[in-house]
Amino acid sequence: MNIRVGQGFDVHRFSDDPGRRLVLGGVLFEGEPGLEGHSDADAIAHAVTDALLGAAGLGDIGQLFPDTDPALAGADSLRLLEEAVRQVHEAGWRTGNVDCTVVLEAPKLAPRKAEIQRVLSEVVGAPVTVKGKRAERLGAIGRREGIACFAVAILFAVPDPSEPLGSDHP
Ligand code: MG
Questions:
Q1: Domain 3-157 adopts which CATH fold?
Q2: pLDDT for 98-109, tens place per residue?
Q3: How far is the CA of 168 from the centre of ligand 1 (A)?
Q4: To which H or E segment does residue 116 belong?
Q5: Could you tell me the pTM of the whole model?
Q6: Residue 148's pLDDT band (boundaries 50, 70, 90)?
Q7: Burial of 19 per CB tally in 10 Å (0-12, 13-18, 19+)
Q8: What are the φ/ψ torsions at residue 19 (nearest 5 degrees)?
Q9: Distance from chain centroid for Cα 69
Q10: How far, in Å, is the centroid of ligand 1 from the Cα of 160?
Q11: Residue 72 DSSP code
Q12: Centre of ligand 1 from the C-alpha of residue 62, in Å
């Protein structure tokens, strides 16, 4: 089989620490409460990373980047995603596209959506699309206790992984 699909999910609760910054899809939301986590708690970047790793059969983000690793405290999750993409490529896979659904009540994603898609697409090397969805006041996300993200990724095998990136995109 030369096409594989992967799914990713992540959730982070909002932090009580006023020093935490909100980063979603590599984009900083100035003045918004941050999420709790060992890294920068970028739930979108984490879900995308897991979707890609899952599709390639390379495990998950927790295996690759343990949250017990002091070197990863406050880590920029885009750099973690970058490393996952590198490993996926090394294993002989290229990304077709990634699609994400972010579940949140606030802040509004729409004004920053294009920017998030641009940043993630650049790191992944393929189109990444993002949709914002409210939880309609249901459950923890609906009570604005956190933000969740679902992602799916499709990969295709390349005959020669040493080929330059981009040359074989469909
Ligand atoms: Mg996470």
A1: 60s Ribosomal Protein L30; Chain: A; (3.30.1330)
A2: 999 999 999 999
A3: 31
A4: helix 113-124
A5: 0.93
A6: very high
A7: exposed
A8: -80, -15
A9: 19
A10: 32
A11: G
A12: 9
Q: Please choose, from the candidates 92, 87, 86, 96, the residue with its C-alpha nearest in 3D space to the C-alpha of residue 59.
A: 87
Q: Could you tell me the distance, in angstroms and rounded to a whole number, from the CA of residue 42 to the centre of ligand 1?
A: 6
pLDDT tens profile 105-147: 999 999 999 999 999 999 999 999 999 999 999 999 999 999 9
Q: Which residues contact 98 (CB under 8 A, 6 or more apart)?
A: 48, 51, 52, 120, 124, 126, 127, 128, 129, 151, 152, 153, 154
Q: How far is the CA of 93 from the centre of ligand 1 (A)?
A: 24
Closest CA to 162 of 88, 90, 56: 90
Take residue 149 and report the two structure tokens written for it: 């993200």
The full set of domain ranges for the chain reads: 3-157
d(CA 47, CA 38): 15
Using CA atoms, how far residue 51 sits from 16, 47, 59, 128, in Å, is: 29, 6, 10, 12
What backbone phi and psi angles, to 5 degrees, belong to 162?
A: -85, -5
So what's the pLDDT on residue 72? 85
39 CA from centroid of ligand 1 (Å)? 8
